[in-house]
Specification:
With 191 residues, this protein is of the alpha+beta class. It is 35% helix and 10% strand. Strands 3-4-5 form a three-stranded antiparallel β-sheet, with no helix packed on it.
């Protein structure tokens, strides 16, 4: 009887050990990053990074303003000329256009860039390295004029190279829109 109890306990122990080991997490296989998954990752990042909030012109609807996705990520409309802003002293530090694509403040006037792959007016001639360098340095094409407010490049520069390459891959996959965004306007000398 004792032999049977010991054997039963041993068998139960082996069975329990098998159950415990079968419950251990198993590392998931590393997915192979193909072009589609890179573009999909980029689309996801563009959405959560709120790129459309400023780089897609907004339009007024009965429910309120919303991005005009027929001009997705095309930047400030080239045919929309912004009047000079009367600067006032006080708590207001900047103002924005109704399209949410032009902003005026102590830095002057900034216009959101065309992020579509148009080769003449957008990012069509850029490389992923140029894109990464621009976001890391805060300079247009990574070497030109400063990228102006309200572009949050100081936060975006913390993204991984892999994520920034995915964003760029997505931007290169969307329809090209010809839209020549105006150059920034320096602040008046008297300020």
């Amino acid at each position: 009887m004792k032999k049977r109890s010991i054997l039963s306990l041993a068998a139960a122990g082996v069975a329990l050990t098998g159950v415990v080991f079968s419950l251990q997490p198993v590392a998931a296989p590393v997915p192979v990053q193909n072009a589609n998954s890179k573009v999909e990752r980029g689309a996801y990042l563009v959405n959560i990074m709120a790129c459309n909030d400023c780089h897609t012109p907004w339009k007024m609807r009965p429910q309120g303003p919303e991005p005009d996705m027929t001009r997705m990520l095309s930047g400030h409309p080239q045919d929309m000329v912004m009047p000079a802003v009367a600067r006032q002293k006080g708590p207001w530090e900047w103002v924005g256009a109704g399209t949410n694509t032009a902003f005026s403040g102590a830095w002057g006037v900034s216009f959101t860039a065309n992020l579509t792959p148009d080769p003449e007016t957008g990012l069509g001639k850029w490389t992923d390295e140029t894109f990464i360098r621009a976001l890391r340095t805060g300079r247009h094409e990574g070497q030109g004029r400063p990228i102006l407010p309200p572009m949050p490049y100081p936060m975006y520069r913390n993204a991984t190279d892999e994520d920034l390459r995915a964003v760029f891959a997505f931007l290169q996959s969307i329809p090209a829109i010809r839209n020549r965004v105006p150059q920034p306007i320096d602040p008046p000398e008297s300020e």
